[in-house]
Every structure is written in C-alpha cells, then in structure tokens.
C-alpha cells in the first residue's frame, strides 16, 4: 500500500478556505465600524471612533455572490495585470529579450571575473522594471552551461539568473505586479518611495552577488564544496561546454529597436507617474502601446502581435484572477461589517509596542502568508486592505506598510516550495529542492535582515 504524501493545497483553494472562515467570522465576530474622512483624496480612519453596530452575517449563497463582486472591485488591478502581461508577451515573442541576454551572457563567459555580477545586475534590472520571475527560467540552461565551462556548478549557473531576477523583484522600484498593485490599493502615488527602495535594492543585490561569488570561488577551488558534487561528477565534458543549447537566434537590429522601445516606454511611464499623475489606467494604456509598437518593429505583423499579446495575458491569468478571489475576502468582511472590528482588535494588541516593532510584525505576517499565497498581486489584494487602515491607526506611513508587504512577499519566493518560479528553475536545472535549500538558506536570512533593517529605517525616517 502506497503511503499518501501531503500535497500543498492549490492557492485558490487556500483563498477560498479563507473566504469560508471569514464568512463564518461574520456570525461570530461583533460587527463594528470606524468613522472615516477624506484627506488629500484618501479615505483615512478617524482615531478612537470605533463603535459596535448591528450584526450583518453573510449567508451561504452570499459567499458565492461575493466572488464576482470581488472580481468587480478588483477590476482595475485585474485588467492592469492582464494588459501589462499582454504587452510583455508581445515583446517576448519578438525574441529581443532572449537573444539580447544570450548574446550578453555568452560574451561575458570569457570574462570570468565580471560574469556573475554583470549577469545578476542585468536580470535584477529586469526584475525591478518588469517583475521578471518565471520568464527567466528559459535562461537557466545557458547560465548552467557557462558556469560549468568555467569550472563552477549548476547551482552557480542557476543562482546568477534566478537570484539576479529575485534581487530586482525584491527591490521592486518599478515592479508593476507587486509595488504598483499594492500602492494602488494603499491610495499612494504609483512607484513613490523610489529612492528608498533603490537604496535597499543595492544592499540586496550586493549581498546576493557576494554570496554567489563566494560559493563559486569555493567550488572552483575544490569541487567537493558543491552542494551538487555527486551530480556534477556525472556531467560530461560536452555538456559543460554547450552554451548555445536551444539558442540559435542571432541578436539583430530589429531586436535592438524592440529593446529601445521597451526601455523608452518604461522611461515615459516613470515620467508620467512623477509629472503627469499617471495611475494604473494610464500605465496599462502605455504598456499596450509599448507591446504593439514592439511587436510590429520586431517583425511579428499585426496578427502575430495580437496573438502574442493574448498569450502574454494567458501567462498572467493565474495572478490576475487571484486578485479578484482575494478581494472577495474584503467583500465578505465589508458585508459582514467585521473588517473594522478585526482592525480594532489588531490595534489593541500591538498599539503599546514601538512603531518599529509594529512594522516588523506586519513584515513577519507577510512572510508567513507568502507560503500560502505566493502570488505577489494576490497577496497584495488579500492583505493591503487590512494593513493600510492598521498603519493609519498606528501612525505608520502607508508607504511603510507597502514596503512590509513587498519584502515579506518577495524574499521567501527564492526558498518556499510553493513558488512556481523557484520550482521551475530547479526543474530545468535538475537541482533537488533540498540541495537548493542547503545552498541558499544563509542568503535568505541575510536578505530578511537587510529588509528588516530597511523597514526600521523607513519608520524612523518617515518614508512617504
């Protein structure tokens, strides 16, 4: 008889379970409300205004009608994610990003000293501008081949791709799928706090580069230090030098123009955000233009451009629609009039602590939740409606609440088994999960510490 293995529940199943628990909570938790008033276009909770009201429990059928209502409430964010994903789908289909990075990585292969930092820097830029995660899986075989040819192992090749992208994703200065979504919910300017995030990003990236380089140096001196030692011994010399596997497309002038279009479009977006008060709708429209122009310049033609656009939207469907499911939690809590009661309880628990410990509590909560909801946009939709009023009542800037979400969500993606991107990297690289954990656990702790210090500094300096 086969022993049954425990299977991690599907993310949607976890969120639906939370919806059911919250619905039951509307029958058990007293209904209550805070008064709110508008300040600078934002709804802000009035301190000491909490009062209990008549109960309004959610019925069994209302649980299910709340799901389409959640989709409706999250429509702006959902379609923003779809349209941005579509634009990147069209850009990706031109082959510009793939061939450009392949050319760079192969050229860098002969400059061993600069290989790891330059490759990690490039992927980190893609991480904080486009939210690159699963998209970088395709480059792992190239990274591994070059790393092996230089006397390293598969872990080094995988790490310089995946941890480079992760460093940028953690920094998140212009990440439309995490920071953009969370700031939209928090009603603060999109991509505000850029300078502070950039400083933390530099520390995160530097720590990642030094960590990978130190490991690579140890492996080169003595291959027995590799966490993949037994596997690496079985890799043939031919495999170690095949750096062109699966990449025959040359980097052309078309590709260069597509990348210029993407870079120029992102630059216009930044200018629009800071000078024209652009928000999610304007950014989504801009990405549509970027995708269409990039597709046409890249030689896809009108039909292939739109079909690639649709394919790109398919790739982000999981994360986009999960926003609607997550917003259902808020709909149920609002209909049951318990969201303010929960916030009131949380305030009473932690209000006696220093503000720096309050934000660390938010941070730890986000780290814990990320195991169950690894989708950044889904986690933002689940937690930010609670964290924003909580931050208001505790006297913490909303920007700091977004930072706590951002770092709590992003860092653990490089180690948790529920991360689709991580599992994709390891599957392509042939690295067992336990070997990867053995390699990376110290870096995760270092990153958590850097982000924790950053959050404390954000509170002390009042980052907005």
UniProtKB/TrEMBL annotation:
Main location: membrane
Secretion signal, residue range per the UniProt entry: none
Membrane disposition: Multi-pass membrane protein
Transmembrane segment boundaries: 6-29, 77-94, 114-133, 154-174, 194-213, 257-278, 284-303, 315-333, 345-365, 415-433, 439-463
A Pfam family this chain is assigned to: DcuC
Chain coiled-coil ranges: none
Domain of life: Bacteria
Keywords annotated in UniProt: Cell membrane, Membrane, Transmembrane, Transmembrane helix
Location(s) in or outside the cell: Cell membrane
Protein known as: Ion transporter superfamily protein YfcC
Organism: Siminovitchia thermophila
């Amino acid at each position: 008889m086969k022993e049954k293995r425990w299977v991690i529940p599907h993310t949607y199943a976890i969120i639906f379970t939370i919806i059911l628990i919250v619905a039951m909570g509307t029958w058990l938790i007293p209904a209550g409300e805070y008064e709110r008033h508008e300040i600078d276009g934002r709804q802000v909770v009035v301190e000491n205004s909490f009062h209990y009201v008549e109960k309004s429990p959610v019925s069994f059928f209302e649980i299910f009608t709340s799901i389409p209502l959640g989709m409706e409430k999250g429509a702006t964010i959902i379609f923003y994610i779809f349209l941005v994903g579509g634009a990147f789908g069209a850009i990706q289909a031109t082959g510009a990003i793939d061939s450009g990075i392949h050319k760079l990585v192969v050229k860098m292969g002969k400059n061993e000293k600069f290989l790891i930092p330059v490759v990690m820097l490039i992927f980190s830029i893609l991480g904080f501008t486009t939210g690159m995660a699963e998209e970088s899986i395709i480059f792992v075989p190239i990274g591994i081949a070059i790393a092996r040819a230089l006397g390293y192992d598969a872990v080094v090749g995988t790490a310089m791709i995946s941890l480079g992208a992760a460093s940028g994703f953690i920094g998140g200065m212009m990440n439309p799928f995490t920071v953009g979504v969370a700031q939209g919910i928090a009603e603060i300017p999109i991509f505000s706090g850029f300078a502070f995030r950039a400083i933390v990003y530099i520390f995160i990236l530097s720590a990642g580069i030094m960590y990978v380089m130190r490991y690579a140096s140890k492996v080169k001196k003595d291959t027995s230090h590799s966490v993949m030692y037994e596997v690496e011994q079985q890799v043939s010399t031919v495999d170690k030098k095949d750096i062109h596997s699966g990449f025959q497309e040359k980097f052309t002038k078309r590709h260069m123009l597509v990348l210029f279009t993407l870079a120029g479009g992102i630059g216009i977006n930044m200018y629009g955000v800071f000078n024209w008060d652009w928000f999610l709708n304007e950014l989504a429209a801009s990405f549509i233009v970027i995708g269409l122009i990039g597709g046409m310049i890249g030689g896809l033609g009108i039909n292939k451009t739109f079909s690639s656009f649709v394919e790109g939207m398919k790739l982000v469907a999981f994360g986009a629609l999960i926003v609607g499911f997550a917003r259902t939690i808020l709909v149920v809590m609002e209909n049951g009039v318990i969201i303010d009661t929960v916030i009131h309880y949380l305030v009473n628990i932690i209000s006696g602590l220093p503000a720096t410990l309050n934000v660390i509590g938010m941070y730890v909560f986000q780290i814990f939740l990320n195991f169950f909801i690894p989708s950044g946009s889904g986690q933002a939709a689940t937690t930010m409606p609670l964290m924003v009023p909580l931050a208001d009542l505790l006297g913490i800037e909303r920007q700091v609440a977004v930072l706590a979400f951002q770092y709590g969500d992003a860092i653990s993606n490089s180690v948790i088994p529920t991360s689709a991107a991580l599992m994709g990297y390891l599957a392509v690289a042939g690295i067992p999960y336990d070997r990867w954990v053995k390699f990376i656990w110290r870096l995760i702790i270092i990153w958590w510490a850097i982000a924790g210090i950053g959050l404390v500094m954000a509170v002390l300096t009042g980052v907005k």
